[in-house]
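Quick one: structure for this chain?
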Amino acid sequence: MNQSAAGPGSLSIEPPLRLSHVDEVNWDQTTEVLVIGFGAAGAATALSAAEQGRQVLLVDRFDPGGATARSGGVVYAGGGTPQQLQAGFADTPQAMFDYLSREVGTAVGPDTLRRFCEDSRGLLAWLEGLGAEFRSHSAPPKTSYPKNGVYLYYSGNESVSGFKEYAEPAPRGHRTVDKGLSGHRLFSVLRAAVERAGIPVLAQASARRLIAAPDGSVLGVEIWRLPPATAVARRHARLMSRAEQVHNFAPAWADRLRRQAQAIETAHAAPLRIRATAGVALTTGGFIFNREMLGQHAPKYLANMRLGTTGCDGSGIRLGQSVGGAVGQMHKVSAWRFINPPTPWVEGVAVNQQGERFCNEASYGARLGVEMCEQAQGRAWLIMDKAQRRRAYREALFGGLWIFQRLPALLLMLLAPKASKLSALANKIGMPEDALQATVDACNQAAAGARADSWGKAAPALQALSTPPYAAINISVDNPLFPCPAITLGGLRVDESSGAVLGEDGQVIPGLFAAGRAAVGIASNGYVSGLSLADCLWSGRRAGRAIAALKTPAAQAA
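Got it. Here's what it folds into:
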């Protein structure tokens, strides 16, 4: 893969080093379990293997944390968690399964999804045992991200038409207790647990190729590491820290910093060959930062804001592919177009450039965003009337919203094209007059009870647009005032009972495992808030236990 085409900072992966015998090379280090990538999935893998008495080594190309530390720290959990019960919701694993079946589709088998739902309470209890804190709330809201003091909320489509008919709605978004975005707090808990377990971590060390036996068994990994505690290592860390800090508002600047950091790696990193006698686990995240991979598998999302960190470059997926690993769901991406809060926005009518609706506006933001990218070429407008905007202004100004919720809403409403008639508004935004008028008329009829809404939108979100002037809020992907972030959901295919990587022939590649967004998993069809983190933790624990349970690791036979 051409490194410059792949994108700034994307790691170049080399073909595997194939040995005729395990002792053919000089190993610099030996461990039982080698985990590549130290985010939620990597931490869960390492901790679970260590809990079974295995010797574990964690490796990360940058400072640990990955996308987990930059996330909202929401874990999707249900089936009757203590927090749900305290809030008055008698959720069950069956109800959770019935709902998630419609979100997960065929990404994993029903038995795997059922195990995930039945293990959910145990996963949350495990996190609490490590030091994470979760709380309930008497009136869980439906929002893109809850404000401080609210830690249980409806984080998906549980209460939306098309889903609520199949399972009793229950809030399952369990946000880690912290001020602001809680991902840093959740990862700090995991990191502290890794330290308590005595698991060593090699930071600023990139996995560039796998080392394999003639039969295909993975024996270890070739790591390229910057010399620790040196001036070049410190400069590399500063550059990458700044790149991640400025990425959301100055991505071009961030990419320049990434190129500088990558040049340091190229010039100063030295190779280490690490033997893994039990197995190697790939937990390096997705590939949203790899432009070449994204263009190949999901080109409709190239204009979206890259969400995550530089390490989300598909390196783990490409390492697996280098030894014959099969991939799946690579076209699946989550793109977030949240229009709640402010709450009155969901009363508006979202239309494509042809003036037609393409989704239920009350849906979870990732469903709206994906439909916008897939069905509307990333171009869409939210049509609102004066009364709705007035209430939205009040909520944005005085409703205690986060700055990342409040500021875009205010700017977008202020700058939106406005007109006293829908026909004039359509002309301003280059949309067919008749189509927009017909769409709004149909919505108003549904709000009046004269017909069913064609997209299943229900009260209180189903409201008539009747107070001019009307406004067209630009919710398109390329609106710089309103970024539409995205992450990839596909990855290496794995045995769903163990997390072992599967080859193109469907057979397990001995000694190689994957978890989190480097693998196909629970969240690989569609996304609701907290589902990816929950899947990273759950699949990581699965992989860690499976590696630890190997009585005679296949890789030792080489």
